[in-house]
Write a structure and sequence with these properties.
257 residues, alpha/beta, nine-stranded mixed beta sheet, 23% helix, binds manganese (II) ion
């Protein structure tokens, strides 16, 4: 089995190292990650500039590759022929912040798993609810063990075609994790605020600031599971059709002008 590991925090991120160390015994592991932080970059396809790839090493000496492309570009590079051997599974993470509810549309971590689904491969995104801890100070080991458990299962049982997994781990010791709860996407509550200032030359600039987002901790959702100490596993798909709303638009059909 050939596993591709990537992330959106960059090749030097401690979450990637912890995950790679846990996964490298499960099969052949290729690490290909961006050379900078792409957090909250959304789903990217770099078409208007060349992509470069360099040899790299993780902090413990694991051989890796790095690129100036986005997380989804890493998956595209790997699956379109950069690597000698075909990839069987794509993992992304471990992100130091959770990716819950609507976050999945912003998250570089999740879009790497999304890109895997587009390539017809199983993809799994891992995120840890590190809150306001600094990534350098965080213990990624419990989340890395979760990643190992889930990747093992994904290798044994094929994921349905087009489905990718969004896994979020509460910040707890391995012993204190209650287990895996299969969830649906919850509701994020963003508390963004626009900060308008002036640069030293008197020109205005804007910063999307505000408080950290919260969420609705409804049972059965990713938020609810995380809140109660469960590992949240949400199966996602790329079909965003509002299937239960198609009827609402029936009368629009056929009319022009
Ligand atoms: Mn990130």
């Amino acid at each position: 089995m050939h596993i591709l590991a990537t992330n959106d925090d960059g090749i030097d991120a401690p979450g990637l190292l912890a995950m790679a160390q846990r996964l490298r015994d499960l099969g052949e592991l290729t690490v290909l990650a961006p050379n900078r932080n792409w957090s909250a970059s959304g789903h990217v396809k770099t078409l208007h500039r060349p992509l470069r790839v360099w040899e790299a090493r993780l902090a413990d000496g694991i051989h890796a590759l790095t690129t100036d492309g986005a997380p989804s570009d890493c998956v595209a590079l790997a699956t379109l022929g950069l690597l000698d051997r075909p990839v069987d599974l794509v993992v992304s993470g471990i992100n130091p912040l959770p990716n819950l509810g609507h976050d999945v549309t912003y998250s570089g971590t999740v879009t790497a798993a999304m890109e895997a689904a587009i390539a017809g491969l199983p993809g799994i995104a891992f995120s840890l609810d590190g809150s306001d801890r600094r990534p350098e100070d965080m213990d990624f080991e419990p989340a890395a063990r979760v990643a190992e458990t889930i990747v093992r299962r994904a290798l044994e049982n094929d994921l349905p075609q087009g489905v990718f997994l969004n896994v979020n781990v509460p910040y707890r010791s391995w012993e204190d994790l209650r287990g895996i709860q299969v969830t649906r996407q919850g509701l994020r509550v963003y508390r963004d605020a626009l900060v308008a200032r002036e640069d030293p030359r008197g020109r205005p600039y804007y910063w999307i600031g505000g408080e950290a987002p919260s969420g609705i901790s409804e049972p059965g959702t990713d938020f609810g599971a995380l809140q109660e100490g469960w590992v949240s596993l949400t199966p996602l798909q790329l079909d965003l059709t509002a299937a239960d709303r198609l009827e609402t638009f029936e009368a629009w059909q056929g009319l022009l002008g």
